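testing teh design pipeline on a random one, pls ignore if ur not involved
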C-alpha cells in the first residue's frame, strides 16, 4: 500500500496478497488493451439499454425536459470520471474502485465496494442476456432459455480466451452503437431540413416547447427520471477497471476520460433533441425503445429491424463488459484476502477463469427472473443496478477527496491528471448522487432497491465479520496459490 489504511476500530489494515507471474501490469494481467480499444470501451460504456430502452419511459415522464436531465447528469458523470482519472494516474490498478477504497477509506470499504460493484454487474448481466434473448425472437422463434444460454456461453468463451479478444469484441459492439446513434441523428437532421419521410411535414424543433412546454409534467416529473438517467450512464466507469490491462495508461486513460463531455453531448443530448424534434414527445410510450418508435413514426420500415439489431448489440456489449469486470473484481478481492483465494488464479492468457465462470453462472438466473416478473423485471433490476453503481461512484469521489488532501500535504505524489475544480466539483457530484437516492424513495418501482440495499449491507457486514474472525491479520499468500494456471 502507498498510504496507511484506516479501518474500523480494532481492525488491522489488510495487506494485499502478492500475485505471482506478474507481467508489466504488476498484477499478473497482460497489458493487451490498446488506445483504439480503450477509447471505444469508454465510448460504448455510455451507450446501452438505458438509452435505447429506458429513455422511452423517461420521455413519457419528463417530456422534452429529459434533455436537460441528461445534460445535468452528464456533467456530474464528467466530474466523477475526472476524479477517477486523478486516482488512476496516481496509481493505475485493475479493480480500481475497491483498491482505492481499501487504501483511502479502509479494508471494510474496500470489501463492500468490491462485492457491491461485482453484484451490480451480475444484476446488469442478468437483465442484458435475457433481453438479448427476447430481441432474437424478432427474427426467429427461438426459446428464450436457449438464446440466453448460447449468449452466456459465447461471451464467457470470449472473455476466457484473452483480454485482447474481449477488447476487440467490445470495440465492434461499441462501433455498432455509435454508428447507429450518429445515423439516427443524421436521418433526423435530414428530415428537419429536407422534409422527407412520413414525419417530414410535421417535423420541427418547436416540438421541444410547443406541446405542453419544456416541462410538461413540471420540475418534479423531470427529477423523478434521474434514476433512469443515471442507470443509462452505468459502465462509463469501466475504463477504470481496464487500467491494469491498458498498454499505456498514462496516455490512453486521460484521452478516454476527456471524451466524456462530447460523448454525452452527441449520444444523449444531441440524439434526444433530434428525435423529439421529429416526433412529438407524447407519441413515445413507456418500455418501448424511442428509437424504434421514431423509425415507425417516420415510416421507415427497415428501421425496426436495424434498431432491433443495435439494441441486441447493446445488450450483448453490456453483458460482455459485465463478465470482464466481475472476474477482475473477484480477483482483486481474492488477492486482498477479502474473497475466496481460488478466484486469484489466472490462466496463461492472464484471465481470471474461476471468477468469470462463477459470475457467468449467476447471470443465467436471468431467465428465471424474467419468467417470474416479465412486466417489472427491467425496472426492478435497473433500480438495483443503479444503487450498486451509485455506491461505486460515491466511493470514487470520497477516495479522490482523501487522496487530494494527502497529496496536498506531501504524503503522496501528485497525480499527473488532476481533476479541475476539485474538491468543489467532487462535493457537488456527491450531493447530486445523494439527491438521486432520495428521489428513488418516491418511485414505487425503484423503491424496491432501497429495501434491498440494507439487506445486502447486512449480509456484507456479517460476511466481513466472518472474514475477520477467520483471518484477522492477512498473511502473504503462498506463491503457488496465485500462480497463473496452466489452462
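output:
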Amino acid at each position: 500500500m502507498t498510504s496507511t489504511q484506516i479501518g474500523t476500530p480494532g481492525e488491522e489494515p489488510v495487506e494485499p496478497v502478492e500475485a505471482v507471474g506478474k507481467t508489466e501490469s504488476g498484477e499478473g494481467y497482460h497489458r493487451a488493451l490498446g488506445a483504439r480499444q480503450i477509447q471505444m470501451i469508454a465510448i460504448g460504456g455510455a451507450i446501452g439499454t438505458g438509452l435505447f430502452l429506458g429513455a422511452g419511459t423517461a420521455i413519457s415522464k419528463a417530456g422534452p425536459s429529459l434533455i436537460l436531465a441528461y445534460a445535468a447528469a452528464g456533467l456530474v458523470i464528467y466530474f466523477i470520471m475526472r476524479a477517477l482519472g486523478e486516482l488512476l494516474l496516481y496509481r493505475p490498478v485493475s479493480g480500481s474502485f475497491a483498491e482505492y477504497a481499501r487504501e483511502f477509506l479502509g479494508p471494510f470499504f474496500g470489501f463492500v465496494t468490491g462485492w457491491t460493484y461485482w453484484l451490480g454487474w451480475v444484476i446488469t448481466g442478468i437483465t442484458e442476456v435475457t433481453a438479448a434473448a427476447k430481441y432474437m425472437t424478432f427474427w426467429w422463434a427461438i426459446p428464450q432459455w436457449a438464446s440466453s444460454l448460447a449468449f452466456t456461453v459465447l461471451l464467457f468463451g470470449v472473455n476466457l480466451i484473452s483480454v485482447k479478444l474481449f477488447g476487440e469484441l467490445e470495440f465492434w459492439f461499441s462501433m455498432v452503437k455509435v454508428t447507429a446513434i450518429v445515423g439516427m441523428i443524421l436521418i433526423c437532421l435530414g428530415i428537419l431540413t429536407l422534409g422527407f419521410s412520413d414525419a417530414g411535414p410535421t417535423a420541427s424543433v418547436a416540438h421541444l416547447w410547443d406541446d405542453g412546454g419544456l416541462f410538461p409534467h413540471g420540475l418534479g416529473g423531470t427529477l423523478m427520471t434521474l434514476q433512469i438517467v443515471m442507470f443509462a450512464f452505468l459502465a462509463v466507469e469501466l475504463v477504470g477497471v481496464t487500467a491494469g490491462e491498458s498498454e499505456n495508461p498514462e496516455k490512453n486513460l486521460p484521452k478516454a476520460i476527456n471524451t466524456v463531455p462530447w460523448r454525452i453531448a452527441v449520444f444523449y443530448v444531441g440524439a434526444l433533441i433530434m428525435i423529439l424534434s421529429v416526433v412529438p414527445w407524447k407519441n413515445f410510450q413507456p418500455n418501448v425503445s424511442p428509437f424504434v418508435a421514431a423509425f415507425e413514426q417516420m415510416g421507415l420500415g427497415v428501421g425496426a429491424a436495424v434498431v432491433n439489431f443495435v439494441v441486441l448489440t447493446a445488450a450483448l456489449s453490456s453483458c460482455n463488459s459485465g463478465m470482464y469486470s466481475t472476474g477482475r473484481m473477484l480477483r482483486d478481492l481474492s488477492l486482498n484476502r477479502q474473497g475466496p483465494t481460488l478466484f486469484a488464479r489466472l490462466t496463461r492468457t492472464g484471465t481470471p477463469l474461476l471468477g468469470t465462470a462463477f459470475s457467468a453462472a449467476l447471470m443465467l438466473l436471468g431467465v428465471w427472473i424474467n419468467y417470474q416478473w416479465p412486466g417489472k423485471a427491467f425496472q426492478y433490476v435497473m433500480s438495483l443496478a443503479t444503487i450498486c453503481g451509485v455506491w461505486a461512484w460515491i466511493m470514487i469521489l470520497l477516495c479522490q477527496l482523501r487522496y487530494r488532501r494527502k497529496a496536498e500535504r506531501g504524503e503522496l505524489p501528485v497525480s499527473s491528471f488532476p481533476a479541475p475544480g476539485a474538491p468543489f466539483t467532487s462535493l457537488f457530484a456527491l450531493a447530486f448522487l445523494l439527491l438521486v437516492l432520495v428521489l428513488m424513495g418516491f418511485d414505487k418501482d425503484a423503491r424496491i432497491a432501497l429495501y434491498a440495499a440494507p439487506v445486502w449491507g447486512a449480509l456484507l457486514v456479517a460476511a466481513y465479520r466472518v472474514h475477520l474472525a477467520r483471518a484477522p491479520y492477512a498473511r502473504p499468500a503462498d506463491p503457488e496459490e496465485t500462480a497463473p494456471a496452466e489452462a
